[in-house]
Amino acid sequence: MMKLEEQRGPLDFELPADLEAREPPEARGLARDQVRLMVSHLDDDSIEHLRFVDLPDVLQPGDLLVANDSATLPAALTATRRDGTSLALHVSTHLPADLWVVEPRSAHVAAGDVLALAGGATATLLVPYEDSRRLWVALFSADVRQLMATHGRPIAYPYVRGQWPIEMYQTVYAGAAGSAEMPSAGRAFSPDVLERLAHRGIGFVTLTLHTGVASLETRERPYAEEFWVPEVTAAAVRRARADGRRVVAVGTTVVRALESAVELGSGHVVASHAWTELVVTPERGVQVVDNLLTGFHEPRATHLAMLEAIAGRSHLAKTYAAALAGRYLWHEFGDLHLILSG
After folding, report:
1. Residues whose CB is less than 8 angstroms from the CB of residue 194 and which lie 6 or more positions away in sequence, other chains included
2. What is the distance between the alpha carbons of residues 108 and 210, in angstroms, rounded to a whole number?
């Protein structure tokens, strides 16, 4: 059993390398809805070990699932510096004035560097983005979305073996493309699971938050991301909360968007389109989300602070100890954790 540290800050533990999911579940002989599902109950700290396909039977009629329908971009490009050396350039976030936030991976770069891209295009690094040590504001000489569509590939970190097509990084309900990385908590949903949820009287609505590139190495705080909460989703959340029904966020991006869409004074979720820099911590707490479907997060990740805000440190430590002992798989192609109240 791995010891989970109880010091201040996000939960710390040792993640064995063999618990990192290195390929999609389909490559492991599983349908996407056959990944494992840990269900932990906040009222008594009990834990169930199931499969994701069991989700409709775990939830109750009247529960409301809120998912992020942002589709994943093939956001990894190959760039070449003036000296002829190549690097991976991850395209992250579209800014006003047609500028983009990018991450030159594992490369020393400086303001003014011009990176050559496929098809004769270039990306000029202008200034570091905010206070980041790894992100830059860049100006591209060509249409970035067309560059990604023609020459890009999905962002994949070193724990992933091989290159997988963009379809492996999409949810079945994906809408407009805009995320540098997959909102992975929703990957396990299948048409069958969605149909069974509807037949059980469990609601399913969406919002959109375009995710940027992660910070696995530097663990920087999350930076601003653009989101949309449509009126149909805001109204469904308001009705569920007024009726005392559970609102289950599908992923940390949904928590960030919904908590950012809370109207000051009323405390209600309202239709919104904005950029959010919100970081959910135990000190801030949560206002509208107290149930969460999520993957298993890296040691000391900022997302663990969000989970602690919802579940508390003691419950979170118990569930992660159980996940390590039960050999659940981590990362975007891994298993899932449902935290339920009531």
Report:
1. 172, 173, 204
2. 27
User: Is residue 285 a contact partner of residue 312, using CB atoms and an 8 Å limit?
Assistant: no
Instruction: Please give the Cα distance from 122 to 117 (Å, whole number).
Output: 5
Domain ranges, ordered by start, for the chain: 17-72+163-340, 76-151
List the one residue out of 306, 236, 233 whose CA is nearest residue 272: 233
The residues, any chain, with a CB within 8 Å of residue 339's CB and separated by 6 or more, are 40, 42, 291, 292, 293, 294, 307, 310, 311, 315, 319
pTM: 0.94
Rounded to an integer, what distance in angstroms lies between the CA atom of residue 336 and that of residue 342?
19
The alpha-carbon radius of gyration of the chain (Å, integer) is 20
**Structural tokens at position 216:** 């696995």
The third-level CATH classification (topology) of the domain covering 76-151 is: Thrombin, subunit H (2.40.10)
User: According to CATH, what is the number of the domain 17-72+163-340?
Assistant: 3.40.1780.10
Q: Give me the tens of pLDDT residue by residue for the chain, a chain 342 residues long.
A: 344 544 566 789 999 999 999 999 999 999 999 999 999 999 999 999 999 999 999 999 999 999 999 999 999 999 999 999 999 999 999 999 999 999 999 788 999 999 999 999 999 999 999 878 889 999 999 999 999 999 999 999 899 999 999 999 999 999 999 999 999 999 999 999 999 999 999 999 999 999 999 765 556 677 899 999 999 999 999 999 999 999 999 999 999 999 999 998 899 999 999 999 999 999 999 999 989 999 999 988 888 999 999 999 999 999 999 999 999 999 999 999 999 998
The amino acid occupying position 33 is D
Cα(340)–Cα(54) distance, integer angstroms: 14
How many angstroms from the chain centroid is the CA of residue 68?
A: 9
